[in-house]
Amino acid sequence: MRRFSLRLAVSVIALLKLCNAGDKVQPGEFIIDHPTLINLGFEWLIDGDDNRNARVDVSYRRRGDSQWKPALPLLRLQGERIYQNQGVFDVISPNMFAGSILDLEPSTDYEARFVMSDPDGISGQPGATVTKTVTIRTRAEPRPYSGGRVLHVYPPGYQGPKSEPSFDALMCAYNYYCGGGDTVTAGRPRVKPGDTVLVHAGTIAIIRNTILATARLMRPHHSRALTT
Q1: Three-class secondary structure of residue 16 per DSSP
Q2: Three-class SS string for 98-150?
Q3: Are residues 74 and 180 in the same domain?
Q4: Of the residues 83, 111, 137, the one at which a domain ends
Q5: Domain closes at, from 114, 137, 160
Q6: Are both 128 and 167 inside the same structural domain?
Q7: In what helix (H) or strand (E) does residue 33 lie, and over which residues does it extend?
Q8: Rounded Cα distance, 45 and 74, in Å
Q9: Model confidence at 63, in pLDDT bands (50, 70, 90)?
Q10: Which of 9-23, 55-69, 76-90, 198-212 is predicted with the least confidence, judged by mean pLDDT?
Q11: Same domain, yes or no: 103 and 157
């Protein structure tokens, strides 16, 4: 009877350890997303953590500073489905953490620190936490290329002085063809890397001879998206 009780106790302990092994988090690949001007994004893939009680606390500092600042913890994801009708996208989240550090300064080096913790422990290593620190730089604000052309867009029917080359619709500056109809998307681009599209004040047509798509601008606006 005593042998049976001992074997049963050993079996229960082994079963509990097996179940607990699935609850332990195992850190996987750490991914740094492409930085923006003022935000940094991160993903940390994991295995385990079946009971979803692991967490990742985040802090950051400008490179060279001594004090760490708290940021939002990474979001725990596992199996959530992101779906949009008509097959635009259908994504199932992997077992991971993901999140961002927000409201930073452009063109600046930052250190980001991530502390993963799990009350059940970290698989494959002692202790209940693991820390990862990375250094990454935010993007600099794009600047117009000094040798590029300036393409001017004016409101339809504008009679004042114009700088050349000038156009009466936004897509006319962007493409060689800018009429309506099914071929509107087939126009070959006029713009080249380094060009700037300068949109002047007024009601600006997107496509020539249409008032269905307009943008009201109160002052000249530089479009820098074309200055890559």
Answers
A1: helix
A2: EEEECCCCCCCEEEEEEEEECCCCECCCCCCEEEEEEEEECCCCCCCCCCCCE
A3: no
A4: 137
A5: 137
A6: no
A7: none
A8: 11
A9: very high
A10: 9-23
A11: no
> Does position 185 have pLDDT exceeding 70, yes or no?
no
Q: Give Cα 66 to chain centroid, integer Å.
A: 28
Within a domain: residue 163? yes
Q: What is the average pLDDT across 180-209?
A: 81
- Look at 30-34, 130-134, 169-173, 212-216 and tell me which has the smallest mean pLDDT: 212-216
pLDDT, residue 89, reads 80
Q: Is residue 67 part of a domain?
A: yes
Mean pLDDT of the chain: 83
Q: Which residues of 111-128 are buried (b: 16+ CB within 10 A; e: fewer)?
A: bbebebbbebbbbeeeee
Residue 27, preceding peptide bond in cis (omega within 30° of 0) = no
Query: Same domain, yes or no, for 91 and 160?
Result: no
The number of folded domains in the chain is: 2
Domain that holds residue 160: 150-223
User: 88-126 pLDDT, tens per residue?
Assistant: 788 899 999 999 999 999 999 999 999 999 999 999 888
Same domain, 172 and 97: no
Instruction: List the structure tokens of 131.
Output: 């820390």
**Full-prediction pTM beyond 0.70?**
no
CA distances from 17 to 12, 14, 50, 116, 164 (A): 9, 5, 14, 21, 76
Question: Up-side HSE of residue 194: CA atoms within 13 Å toward CB?
Answer: 5
Q: What is the CATH number of the domain that holds 112?
A: 2.60.40.10
